[in-house]
Amino acid sequence: MYLHPEAAGAGSPSRDVLLVSAIITVSLSATIVLCGICQWCQRKMGKRYKTSLETVGTPDSSRGRSEKKTIKLPAGGKAVNTAPVPGQPPHDESDRKTEPHSSVSDLVNSLTSEMLMLSPGSEDDEGHEGVSRENLGRIQFSVGYNFQESTLTVKIMKAQELPAKDFSGTSDPFVKIYLLPDKKHKLETKVKRKNLNPHWNETFLFEGFPYEKVVQRVLYLQVLDYDRFSRNDPIGEVSIPLNKVDLTQMQTFWKDLKPCSDGSGSRGELLLSLCYNPSANSIVVNIIKARNLKAMDIGGTSDPYVKVWLMYKDKRVEKKKTVVMKRCLNPVFNESFAFDIPTERLRETTIVITVMDKDRLSRNDVIGKIYLSWKSGPGEVKHWKDMIARPRQAVAQWHQLKA
How does pLDDT run across 301-312, given as a tens digit for each residue? Predict the structure, then answer.
């Protein structure tokens, strides 16, 4: 109701005062309601995120037995693999508890990132340009020097998140220990069967090794997948110059594994696409092109071609191959191959792609391989899941060739 200023009494509020009072009342009410909603959302989302953190699994806790091994070193010392010391568990940085995010904005950002990574159509920046860096896992070890006994101690504790190298979706890892530049004398841990989070807990003693020679060496650890009937597959490596380590006491390290320098990281890349047709029960593999292939011939080049094997339950079912490209390290193939695969067999199916170098007078050389399935390495699994999530579409991805 509008009142003329002259008609209003001396104690009656003006129109402007009434309007401002109404605005203030509505604003306070809205603020109280929004605060209540935010607090309720924070409690609910925080509780949900905390629960998800508490359900995260832990690595296999099995420990490996050790045995004594002794070798003569050029420095005049010897290396011994000793049993673990009872009552002295290794320091494990992974046992630290993870606190849940207390901020709603941090939680939303975290969940958004996870959704983007799990989205079938999402790709990281590296994926658009080439192959994304593959996670090779990490290894925990300790190193120290006893000046009174002139003994270098290296303890191999465990590894985590190793990639699968076998058709069964797992690996049989073990570790080789070198003191570079000496490559002739090495020590090895035991093989841990079918384990991507192995625990070795084995100690190696390099006895009678003068300190002035120890600091001139590089501790080199190579993690491999043991294969009974073929060459062991390299998984990753770690090297640490001993002159950069405080050897007066045992130092424990967690190190990410890097591609092995023996060639597994420089074999080249292959671009291929997968297309899954559920109604036709088929997968079409298109071998598009390769780049930076390893030169296998004396002339500094190769004659590459590609073999594609369809495997079911570790058994070879069908093979296809491309034509040979003469003297070329960046060949373009553009050849497609169709394989009949019933939907119920997808989980037990593996597509093995091998890039070969053709030799007329000798045996053909393997340049590198790729294993595609739902249980291979991270990059291969991503391609496989993208193919299933986008039926009847050709999904292309670069892959690093492996030994």
Answer: 899 999 999 999
The pTM assigned to this predicted structure is 0.42
Q: How many degrees, rounded to 5, is the angle at CA 364 between CA 285 and CA 226? A: 80
C-alpha pair distances (Å), 176 with each of 46, 66, 190, 298:
45, 14, 10, 31
pLDDT digits (tens, 9 = 90+) for 155-166: 999 999 999 887
What would the two tokens of residue 133 be? 């860096």
Q: When comparing pLDDT for 259 and 146, which is higher?
A: 146
The residue count of the chain comes to: 403
Which pLDDT value is given to residue 261? 66
Peptide bond into 181 cis (omega under 30): yes
DSSP secondary structure of 378-392: HHHHHHHHHHHHSTT
Residues 261 and 185: their CA atoms lie apart, in Å, by: 18
> According to DSSP H, which parts of 87-210 are helical?
104-118, 125-129
- CATH 2.60.40.150 region(s) of the chain? 138-263, 268-401
Pick the CATH number of 138-263 from 2.60.40.150, 2.40.50.140, 3.40.50.300, 3.40.50.2300: 2.60.40.150
Shortest CA distance to 219 belongs to which of 245, 184, 248, 190?
A: 245
SS3 label, residue 15 = helix
What six digits make up the tokens of 310?
């369809």
Per-residue pLDDT tens digits for 46-93 = 444 333 333 333 333 333 444 445 444 544 455 666 544 444 444 443
- d(C-alpha 358, C-alpha 304), whole Å: 6
Query: Collapsing DSSP states into helix, strand and coil, what is residue 348?
Result: helix
Percent above pLDDT 90 for the chain: 43
Helix H or strand E encompassing 395: strand 395-400
pLDDT greater than 50 at residue 106: no
Topology given in CATH for the domain delimited by 268-401: Immunoglobulin-like (2.60.40)
Q: Which residue, 206, 236, 207, is CA-closest to 221?
A: 236
CA triplet 157, 162, 166: central angle to 5 degrees? 125
